[in-house]
Amino acid sequence: MAVCCSLPAASDSAAAVTPICPMAAAVRFAKRWPREAASLEQEMDDYGRATIAERLDMIHLPPSEVVSYLNQFRIHGLYIIGPPSGRPCVIGGAVDLNRVVGHIGRKWTRIFAGSQPVLHAVWWADRASVARVIELATHDMRGAWHGNSLIDADAAAVTAAVTGAARRLDIRLADHATVMTRVSGQVGKIKQRIEGSRQSGGLSAFNAEFRRRRLLAQRTGARFPPYGAALRRLRAAMATAAATGGTATPLAIFDQVLGAD
Questions:
Q1: What is the pLDDT of residues 138-166, one digit of tens each?
Q2: How far apart are CA 97 and CA 120, in angstroms?
Q3: What is the DSSP string of 58-86?
Q4: Confidence band (pLDDT; 50, 70, 90) for 76?
Q5: Would you say the pTM of this structure is higher than 0.70?
Q6: What is the Cα–Cα distance from 202 to 195, expressed in whole angstroms?
Q7: Domain boundaries, the chain
């Protein structure tokens, strides 16, 4: 039943005010000016999609150090990726979401011809659980399933299928923002230790090894990473070592960061 509202009566007038029903007014407008109504509806729809895209763009992709940390625990992200409009969607599981977004954009050039892929949603769980949820969710949406991870449905419908499948399987999907905050906190502590070591001279062994291997690469013509890239790799290697209990030797970490001699 439509709800009718009335404008307040003017205090200086005893004249009755005609009640206004928003739904009835909208119907009359659409009947009398169909083109204008259709244009207005399209503008509102476009605005809604743009607003959704802006909100979804706030989902931060994990940096390389976080990816390295999560990899050690076989934690995967269950992602829903699609155009800004939210339809169709690509569903899957991975850790390095930066690489996945780029790959999907190159693979589905027809879908993303006019826009970049947008990460609409992502949750985290162990790899096996992510695979089970995806299997059940895509089965539930088999009418829209086009194969190769593509679902001809909007992000809201796919999200509902994913969360519903997780509930039925009694699988807890961890919130993306929460996981990123916790893991980034651990990785941040590692970065602080590395930066503190760099400033205090504690990275002298790494710096000496970096210089030695760089000179060797220059003599042989081999490719060698710049210092900034080497530090990023060192942070990733330290994150991996922290996740596995810190059993890696300094030489093993140097080989991983700079390449074996």
A1: 999 999 988 888 999 999 999 999 999 99
A2: 12
A3: TSPPPPHHHHHHHHHTTEEEEEEEE-TT-
A4: very high
A5: no
A6: 9
A7: 22-56, 64-176, 177-258
